[in-house]
Give the backbone structure.
Amino acid sequence: MLDSTMSGELQKQIKFRNHKTKSHQRYSCTKPGQKCSFIRQHFPRIRILSDSKSSSRTVPCIVMQGKAGEQLTWLGQRGFVGRFQLVYWDPPFFSGKERAAPNGSFSDQWPSLQEYLNFIREHFARIVPFLSPTGFVVLHCDYHASHYLKILGDELMGYENFRNEVIWHYTGRRQKAIVRINSKHDSLLIWAKSDEARMNPIFDNWDRDYYIRMKKQQVHVDEDGREWIWGHKGKGQSHAYRIYLEEVLAQGRAVDSVWDIPIINTSARERVGYPTQKPVKLLERVVSLLTQPGEWVLDVMAGSGTTGVAAWPLERRVCLGDSNPEAVAITVSRLKNLSVNENV
Ligand SMILES: C[S@@+](CC[C@H](N)C(=O)[O-])C[C@H]1O[C@@H](n2cnc3c(N)ncnc32)[C@H](O)[C@@H]1O
């Protein structure tokens, strides 16, 4: 089902799956030494998924196969400039590794750091115009290049628009280390398009015992049996007011910039075997923090499509793409599966 708020023209264009406005010659050999078969294809290839079976997904989900630049050209031609509330971006990390896994592979090997940074800069600069005036861009990276990417993003988005570096902290195998200690976090660098951009407060559950330990206060019980501790208003006012535990615990703990979310373990149901697949829970949090239902979310290097698997059931309008056909096939299959099984 397509977005009812879209203009008729845009709807027509989006329905037009095999668009012919931009064509690229792609030449492929089936095997080395074999006669080459020259296949002319149009990129990006577009699929629009809609889910009439599910009451929750009445918004469009566009899946694109092609290079990020081709996807952005296609979107630009269809009036998407300035329309995305969130661009989540999880590019290669400059890890130097050949990322190969049972269900896909991509290269994260670069001739030099400079070439990697040129790649990121070129795509970042092209992404910026697609953000809505109140939108956010989230660049997912790790220690290999995060320090350069922060500066690069500040140049393109404005230092004053940098909002947070979220640390995604995870567990996993730890080794005795003598060169460097175990690195168990990624960074999510968040910039806003302008100072008008607003986040949605989100809360974790408080652990009751942890909260009491942290407050370093004795727990009292009032005449109705309700537990409370003293709240203080600064020096000399340590018994200023009562904090009722049930109220604090019910409200929850406003999230901070360190997120403890487990990586996908080998037996997890959501694991699809694509290298560097991110947990749905992580993307659900990013999407919930930075967007409202009905708003557009873009991921032009979507890998196995985790952004869509998280965002679509939350009723966000989604555009996903990847240059790797294996990734796109997994993405489509995961999204289609959502209609069969709501809880991936
Ligand atoms: C780190 S992975 C993304 C993983 C994804 N977040 C997930 O949960 O599965 C990076 C992806 O970028 C894709 N990629 C690399 N260069 C690209 C380009 N120029 N255009 C589009 N996709 C690209 C790779 O194919 C790979 O799937």
In short: Residues 92 and 108 are 6 Å apart (CA to CA).
